[in-house]
Write a structure and sequence with these properties.
The protein has 332 residues and is an alpha+beta fold. The chain contains nine helices and 17 strands. Strands 1, 2, 3, 4, 5, 6, 9 and 15 form an eight-stranded mixed beta sheet that branches. A hairpin with a 2-residue loop joins β10 and β11.
Amino acid sequence: MEKKNFDFKLVDYDNLNELTEMFNLCFNLMPSENYFEWKFLHNPAGKAIGFVAYHEGEVAGFYGVIPEQFMVNGEKTLVYQSMDTMTHPKYQRQGLLTSLAKKTYEHLIEQDGEVFIIGFPGETSHPILVKKLGWKDIVLIDIIFLNQAAFKMKSLFRKTSNLSFEKIEKFDESFKSYFENKNYPVGRILRRYDENFLNWRVLSNPLFEYEVVKMSEAGDLVGFLVYALYEKKRCFIYHIDFAEDELYEKYLNSVCNYLFEENQSNFLYTFEPTQPLLAELFKKNWFIKNIFGKGPFSYKPPLTGFSNCEKIKNVDFFQKESYHIQPLLRDY
């Protein structure tokens, strides 16, 4: 195959829709007119950073990252997430991903010094990131799932809680103190959530639709839930959040019961937690894994990382136990 010459430029914020055709070809999804503006410009943590490759004026590839606020060892910390990696089908096998990614990392290191990037790469980009760009697998995430029939049978003798559920269309001022009073554990890497980020990431998302539920007890806000329904009445839990860690044990059964009853779901499924105590709690609530390596719920999405440092705020960046992982951690 003849090697083509490409021009590489920082992404042009004034001409983001030039990425639309390539996005559709790569992901088989047609983004709305405001998708790139939403994702690249409106993120409360800052604008996306990336490079576009051109061949004779035609868009050939894109690689970029979005900034995100994390809490690491109890401190607010900037972490980037790799996203929307694209190579036009006409220009595949030209080494574009490698070239675009290297330019992005060089730019970030020059800008920030220490750089930390996470990603949930697809099957095509994953081996390139690991073998050619120095990324490391943090964990291959197991999918855990719960069958409705098994849940009903095993819940016959469980006490019901006084937890109430209310679907919402906005994270309003009532969530402000909830997030301000949130306790973040030492020695851990967690996404920092607040009402501004969630209104942007979840409720203003032009590509995907989510259901958001406010959870209260005796009128007091104690948590929130993000989920989506997919084919075959399967309910994907994107995020469960409680004000205090001990509330997971108190209320997880009630959350599952709500999701089954509200949506008539056949299955609930989500990522297996990387924290042992939380993983054990899901197991106690009868979530299981597909142990056969094929069929429903068998795919293991990788969480990978890139950095020019081994530790972030004295926490091992590449150790899976450092992370609190739920599906909403992904950029989509």
